[in-house]
Amino acid sequence: MDATVDLGRFHPQRTIQIYPVILSGGSGAGLWPVSRAAQPKQFHPLLSERSLLQETVARNRLDSGFAAPIILANCDHRYMVEEQLRQLAVESPCLLLEPMARNTAPAIAVAALWLAAREADAVMLVQPSDHIIATPAAFRSALAAGLSAVEQGLIVAFGVRPTRPESEYGYIQAGAMLNSGGEAYRIERFVEKPAQDQAVRFVESGAFYWSSGIILARAGDIVEELERLHPALLAACAKALEEGVADGACLTLASAAFADAPSLSFDRVVMERTQRAAVVPVEMGWSDIGSWRALRDAAAPDGDGNVAVGDVLLEEVRDSYVRSTDRLVAMVGVENLTVVATPDAVLVAGAGAADKVPRIVERMRQRNRAEAMQHTTTHRPWGYYRTVDAGERFQVKRLMVKPGAKLSLQMHFHRAEHWVVVRGTAMVERGKERLILRENESIYIPCGVEHRLENPGKLPLHLIEVQSGAYLGEDDIVRLADTYGRA
Question: Residues 352, 34, 41, 312: is their CA dihedral positive or negative?
């Protein structure tokens, strides 16, 4: 693929390469119970067959002009990111892994430093992984105008005309138009997350845009502004990169150094304070999908104003959003509701109260409820496991092992395991034994015995695992050897 953007009427015959920088560190609490800390909303297919992350990556491949993506993600999400990129056949991605969440300023600083060390004039397009753009063609046209401003040394934000007062967004007031050949303006004023009454005034004035969270700039220019505006943050990020650990296409930032970087937004650190900011207005069907209300607004309702996803039956229901991931949800004679059902949790909210879902999630976290963090399905580099049933001294799981993948060589002090192959072929190490199991065959792994499970076949391996013992926690795993570096 030709990795260039045609600047068209702005600079005839001139080409510039763009490096997509995709931020994938959010938790997406507003979309609980589908989005959880261990598998946030960007990893879910909410509007199409692809996840929001995959849609973001694919959007940067629809047209020429984009280099391989640079993705900032939490260390815990590494293997989900890699698997979703593999499904898209993305070549040569770079994963910069954060040991803890530190907001957008440190994430963008790390990406800018990484790029600037390789090409000071590299143009980076920073995008959240969990937003939607319904009109990619409009977005690409705006990029051309943005590139002209970037060539003047400016940091470009993309503004969206607000449709309602929203205190969780950044607001941009455009100033003088730039002499750049496209619709781009100096930023007169940038206010991140104003108070609600202030947001109302901004919207009523008609003079402000929402900040889409998408930034276009040269990596070197971002480094210069961070050095001027917050040198301590930049220094911490530079040290985290320098002391980071590389593993193939991944670089894990040094934990202690990255922890020294203040958890601040890029808007707060740079966009509110810099004199080098510009805005390009664009109507591109943008939404940050921060709540079930936003997801409902992005979908096409039926004749009764309902949006139904999954196994759903409705009778005399109006103006409601209903989603089920695995079971039948039947509703009769109600209206203006949001109902979301997953295997282990159900959310019921008034349509106007969907924005308050994060409060429920916070209460669950305070009570150490697993439902705030984990799904019943947990993804691993070798595949996934799903909890089917659990009780006193027993637990039943369904495992899927990808072709050619294998679990760590491990042992347990407090539990024994029984494996039954449902589909595929399993190679099992048990002590000094190596056995092949096929469909409907089973094996017993006594407590304290070293063991390993592998899929030597070309099809996914599915099996049922029954655990029994005095303690069944995941921390009762002693890894002796591991393909994925977890031993």
Answer: negative
Give yes or no: residues 390 and 472 share one domain.
yes
What are the b/e assignments for 238-269, b being 16+ CB within 10 Å?
Answer: bbbbeebeeeeebbbbbeebbebbeebbbbbb
CA-CA distance, 249 to 75, in Å (whole number)? 13
293 lies in a domain?
A: no
Taking the C-alpha atoms of residue 134 and residue 148, their distance in angstroms, rounded to an integer, is 24
State how far the alpha carbon of 377 is from the alpha carbons of 296, 298, 460, in Å: 25, 27, 16
pLDDT score of 183:
86
User: Which of 232, 264, 287 corresponds to the end of one domain?
Assistant: 287
Q: How far is CA 19 from the centre of its chain?
A: 18
163 and 189 share a domain?
yes
Residue 302, pLDDT score:
95
Cβ pair 205, 165 in contact under 8 A: no
- Residue 25, pLDDT above cutoff 90: no
Residues 331 and 282 in one domain: no
- Residue whose entry in the numeric block shows the structure tokens 């990484």: 114
Q: How far apart are CA 94 and CA 21, in angstroms?
A: 10
pLDDT at residue 37 greater than cutoff 60: yes
What pLDDT, on the 0 to 100 scale, is given for residue 15?
A: 61
pLDDT at 156 over 80: yes
Sign for the CA dihedral angle at 99, 101, 102, 103 comes to positive
Tokens at 328, concatenated: 């039948």
Q: What CATH number did the domain enclosing 211 receive?
A: 3.90.550.10
**275 and 354 belong to one structural domain:** no
Q: Is 167 helix (H, G, I), strand (E, B) or coil?
A: coil
In a domain, 372, yes or no: no
Q: Comparing C-alpha atoms, which of 462, 438, 450, 453 is closest to residue 384? A: 462
Question: What's the pLDDT tens digit per position in 255-280?
Answer: 999 999 999 999 999 999 999 999 99
Do 256 and 338 lie in one domain? The reply is no
Q: Is the pLDDT of residue 3 over 60?
A: no
Structural domain containing residue 341 = 299-364
3-state secondary structure of 442: strand
Q: Is residue 215 part of a domain?
A: yes
Name the burial class of residue 214, with classes exposed (0-12), middle (13-18) and buried (19+) by CB atoms within 10 angstroms of its CB: buried
Q: What DSSP letter does each residue of 64-123 carry, written as one string?
A: S-B-S-EEEEEGGGHHHHHHHHHHTT--S-EEEEESS---HHHHHHHHHHHHHTT-TT-E
> What's the pTM value of the predicted model, to 2 decimals?
0.88
